[in-house]
Specification:
There is one protein chain. By secondary structure, the chain is mainly beta. Strands 1, 2, 3, 4 and 5 form a 5-stranded antiparallel sheet that branches. Strands 10, 11, 12, 13 and 14 form a 5-stranded antiparallel sheet that branches. The longest helix is centred in the first third of the chain and has 16 residues. The two termini are about 20 Å apart.
Length: about 425
């Protein structure tokens, strides 16, 4: 049904935009925001420079979802601009242009061809020993390959100081050197995944250590995250696919200053982290579930308390911080793996409640362990559904997720449930 919703959304946008004219593409129709004044001025300068209207290339992931980036690239104290686009006169690959403001007007000073046809991510970084701010662009090809490029700009010259194929990367001071470290997970190979760690010196990224094989237990890297541990140090958490479809597990790495390299972290509370963190949905990726700077790993709890479910779409989940010996469960709740959301429940309910199907379609209930007391009902409904005593937890596309607290659930606060709702 997801493709029907997407098709309907595209059709609706086409109707609004007028289908008589050829659109720039589904990507632009679905994602292009209204440009602000500064972005509009940069685009006009780019059109004047190219002699045509380019197709702006929007990143598909990351915090910056705009093809326009503003920063002081050359370190002269003035804000510069960068723009990512495709030009019909220059071929299919993405191009990167840098613009400076001259007498109040934006002017293209440099451009160069990128590494592929689309953009996955854009990030900025101040490298230790380098002037200005550097630009990191993740490029993606239609065939699935991804390439990371690092650019520096000085004296009106745009240089590519580093590029490499990758599947995931993180930029953070992992080693404690005071500069940004770049951790890259390479593409999948027959021998498994390899990890590289590089640090910035004199404007260049240089290897800190030889490539580290993270084992052939993972067939692909599905996520790489920087996490602040209980001891204040940074850790890397890697989510990987284990070979069978939609099955994930995790590993943790940290920087060993004595060995001057990344090594595998083995929590003292579990014998085998890979086995302990295996879960059976690609939606259950690690994240900072409580916004405290630590990335927690989701662990599906066993089937106890779920025997009365007709549809096996729900799972009790505990989000674990394995870098601490105490209070490792940071959040306990239910993941709806069909609709893709997580709802935190009161901590004291863990092991004391069971899940049952609700009385209406797409609903479920939390009951006491004996099944006699109804504590909470959750449902997914269309926007025009009557409230019926329910309050809204959040939105999932065009649908709403609502909850109703049972008579015996007086210790549950609606505000806590709303704050504990997260799309996966």
């Amino acid at each position: 049904m997801g493709w029907l919703k997407t098709a309907a959304a595209v059709a609706a946008v086409c109707c609004l935009a007028g289908c008589g004219a050829a659109p720039a593409g589904v990507e632009d129709l679905l994602r292009a925001p209204q440009l602000d004044g500064q972005q509009n001025q940069v685009e006009k300068a780019l059109v004047a420079y190219l002699g045509e209207t380019p197709q702006m290339k929007y990143p598909t992931t990351g915090d910056n979802l705009s093809p326009f980036v503003f920063d002081d690239w050359d370190g002269d104290g003035d804000t510069d601009a960068a723009a990512l686009y495709v030009s019909s006169a220059k071929g299919q690959n993405v191009h990167l242009a840098v613009l400076e403001s001259v007498d109040g007007q934006w002017v293209v000073t440099q451009e160069r061809e990128g590494l592929s046809t689309s953009v996955e991510s854009i990030e900025t970084a101040g490298l230790r020993g380098a002037q200005g701010t550097q630009l990191l662009v993740g490029y993606a090809a239609a065939s699935g390959e991804k390439y990371l490029a690092v650019y520096s700009y000085r004296d009106e010259t745009l240089n590519e100081v580093f590029h490499q194929a990758y599947s995931q990367y993180e930029l953070r001071d992992i080693s404690g050197s005071g500069g940004n470290d770049l951790v890259i997970i390479g593409p999948e190979t027959e021998s498994g995944l390899q990890l590289q760690m590089l640090t910035a010196q004199d404007g260049q990224f240089i290897p800190v250590m030889p490539p580290l094989a993270v084992g052939n237990q993972f067939t692909s890297c599905e996520g790489l995250y920087t996490s602040r541990g209980d001891d204040g140090s940074y850790y890397l958490i890697l989510d990987g696919q284990t070979g069978s479809a939609n099955t994930l597990a995790s590993m943790i790495l940290y920087y060993d200053a004595r060995q001057q390299q990344l090594v595998t972290y083995h929590p003292i509370t579990v014998e085998n982290l890979f086995t302990a963190t295996q879960r059976y949905s690609s939606l259950l990726k690690s994240q900072d579930i409580d916004d405290d700077g630590t990335v927690e790993i989701p662990v599906q709890l066993d089937g106890a308390g779920m025997e009365n479910l007709a549809v096996n779409r729900l799972s009790f989940v505990a989000w674990m911080d394995y870098t601490t010996e105490y209070d490792q469960v940071k959040s306990f709740g239910v993941a709806d793996l069909e609709y893709g959301y997580y709802l935190r429940l009161p901590d004291e309910w863990q092991g004391q409640v069971l899940l049952t199907d609700g009385d209406e379609a797409d609903s479920w209930q939390v009951r006491s362990a004996d099944g006699e007391t109804l504590l909470l009902t959750v449902r997914v409904v269309d926007p025009n559904a009557q409230s019926g005593g329910y309050f809204q937890l959040g939105n999932l596309g065009a649908q709403k997720v609502q909850a109703r607290i049972g008579v015996q659930g007086e210790n549950v606060q609606s505000g806590e449930l709303i704050r504990g709702f997260r799309p996966l």
